[in-house]
């Protein structure tokens, strides 16, 4: 059959992590349908010199992403409202979202009339590079804007405020037509890195619960009840504080911006 490209292989890896499958389970599933696992390895789909450049770009993206999320989380003190329809750091279309059409002037991905979103839920932004209107599916993630514009180059390392470069980061977007393939691939690699980290964290938590069960001789349902009680207590605390948090422990939001 037709071989997969790098992006399709990365989407396959994303699906694997969403399903919480191990690499061995993935390989067995592929072999059961006659697919050799090595043929869907994204590392083998590009030459070594290109892989080194992609790795370097992804390392830079990971550092920028860490700074962005630390700054945003600390500066908001948990009060920021997340818009599920907004363009996030990666904006990965793992489900094959198509262009919304209509006001979109970019049309970077195929537009399917049947899957076009309604006007009430469509998101359109202006590309900071070409100044064309783009729908969410045709936008690259915020990470692409960082890599293209070197936004953090102009930010102060100590102190500062949420104006200037940070507001540009929060409000600016770039379309997929203005991004080269390496930047788009770096977004996939960084997204998979985060999913791997989340999976390791989940497995560590499960192992910790299992260890508690072995030491305390607790039944599985009692462990789940204790976890539920902790989560319930956290929810009650948030209600008591009206979803606000004390600023006493936050004299500075981060190394980039103060509260």
TrEMBL record:
InterPro entries: SAC9_C8D (IPR057557). Residues 96-184 form the SAC9 C8D domain. It holds the Pfam family SAC9_C8D. It comes from the Eukaryota. This is SAC9 C8D domain-containing protein.
